[in-house]
Amino acid sequence: MSSLSLRPENSVVGLPLPHESAALHVTGEALYTDDLVIRTHDVLHAWPVQSPHAHARILDLRVKPAYDVPGVVRVLTSEDVPGVNDAGVKHDEPLFPSEAMFHGHAICWVLGETLEAARLGALAVEVEYEELPSLVTVREAIAAGNFQGIGRHLESGDVEAALASAPHVFEGEFEFAGQEHFYLETNSALALIDEGGQIFVQSSTQHPSETQEIIAHVLGVANHAVTVQCLRMGGGFGGKEMQPHGFAAIAALGATLTGRPVRLRLNRTQDVTMTGKRHGFHSSWRVGFDDDGHLVALDATLTADGGWSLDLSEPVLARAMCHIDNGYSIPNVRVDGRIAKTNKTSQTAFRGFGGPQGMLVIEDILGRCAPKLGYDAMELRRRNFYQPLDSTPYGMPVRHAERLEACWSEVLETADVERRKVEIEEFNASHPHLKRAIAMTPVKFGISFNLTAFNQAGALVHVYKDGSVLINHGGTEMGQGLHTKMLQVAATSLGIPLSRVRLAPTRTDKVPNTSATAASSGADLNGAAIKNACEQIRTRLEQVAGGKLGIGAHDVRFADGVVRGLTFDSPTLSWEEVVHAAYFQRVQLWAAGFYRTEGLHWDANAMRGEPFKYFAYGVAASEVEVDGFTGSYTLRQVDIVHDVGDSLSPLIDIGQIEGGFVQGAGWLTLEDLRWDESTGPNRGRLATQAASTYKLPSFSEMPEVFNVRLLEKAHEDGAVYGSKAVGEPPLMLAFSVREALRQAAAAFGPAGTSVDLGCPATPEAVYWGLDKARACSASPSTGGA
User: Which residues make beta-bridge pairs with 574?
Assistant: First the structure.
């Protein structure tokens, strides 16, 4: 067992503690970025001028009329940028564009004494456009050959030979939608300039260091002149990994030019129409099975809808390609990936980061092909699971593959699946207009950033003379409980009670050059960095304590604030006594910690290597009931067993599993992004701009019975205290809901009916699926899926 994963007895990690800010959240006392405005004097407010066209050249921008509006102080345009007029890391996202690339694109920004003054000023700005042809759908972009970024190719084995010899070959297409993040707190920033010209920006961002970099290059200053702080976020889900940079830069630019604090907070409509979403995908595929239902070959082309600029589309596509296998061994694989350029918001990171899109393709294939092969879908999935010693198509060994089977078996047993399947058959036989179904799906999700360089983290830990401890780390808190886990890691590493540890807000002047809190790596990276810093301090304190106790430093033990030797009757010192003594011995009581994930190597061009530290596994069983008249449905019961290693904080992890599952179910069944595809004046306009038109999962969509269990005896060697990531993997457990809906729709037709189900599987899509099932002939087809 590695020193990083070794967990002491009676440790604070592993305790089921509530979220460290839970009481503040429910009482309304928790501060978010925009709450700081009322504590700041003389604030200006920012409002965007948005394009009414999906694609248009800006011929003239007349800002003078805005200054006639009372309260307007400044209109920010490209002429005001002292540095680089770009808010993207790929240098393809002009902060002030000369060409509107999507409906809602911000052309310029108005600063006002009040928000209303800024809004009226924005209405007064006159923009002359030359409308240009636009591509709104991914199919239009494919037809036009309009792609961006670098395409990728992943190949293993001989696909053509395998398909030629396979006794069962199917082919098809599958297009599925993206997803709006719809975090409770919209994008916001508050920028101030001090007397020395230092720029301080409070930002709701998952990536403070990159926000700092973008602000610096827009303003033409060095990074050290900019400090970015993130108190906490009211949700992020990946939507605040890249998107906040430009908004923070606008606020910083306004503050620099006016000398006054500038607040930028998007309202809901602005946030939905201006920010990127989960990438929708188009896929085409051919798949081969042998006579025993084993996958023998997959040939697929994945086209991601990237929107108007690259953002993170390239790594999202790469992760989708690396996850098209999900939990299944496919001996021969060929996947081509490309990114469509469309006149929509620039699509970005979203929980799962392309992994869900790739995994959805193979789950859709298995769900469609199972009836054609004459197999129960559960059985078809199970017989294709990865086995120990198997490797992925990109050459990475699938360590702990047996955990997939362990999760599956536990769900079967604890959820009494076989008995319920019999009951469902009896129910369906006696209810012609209501059908039930239960489906099980697995998850195998790789943990680490695609880009190896991002797999590093820093921490700064201070021990004060009174024995209290302050920790700083580079991770951000968006409600996921990262700070809770980091407090537990620090207390465990130092051997002190949790009450002695406090955590400071995330700031770029405390821990520099941090990676985004993303890729489910927040606890892995920052926890290891904190542990490293704490161990440096503890090693020094062991020398001090050993001298006072008259024993060797290596025999000193710290536990629950008490310092003692190895023997039971050893004399003891309090933590505070040792710290006090260390100070008077001039021993350093603070440390900077660092961690880099070992064992990663990845050739992005060849799509070969070991890009992930480990795989997280899980299995879900979902039971649904579908109404044959309307396609409406009820999620009756969900049972989950998920692998989080040795949990750092079980309550936090169970909450993440529940939340991730529900968010995944929303993407797959409810959340239907609709852009205007007509040739009319509103072409390219997002029609689903609010909760009134974009349906989010709520309490009414929660399963009546929701059982979540953590896989036991799942220690992960080489990860902090034996734990595993939990942020993203549970989202994909929701595939079981969509597959259950497919099976319930098929139950309206004859046995062996294969249903092609839309995604999201809204009640409308389910109705069209079950309506086609009713019309199917009695003999199952073996043709194309």
Answer: 562
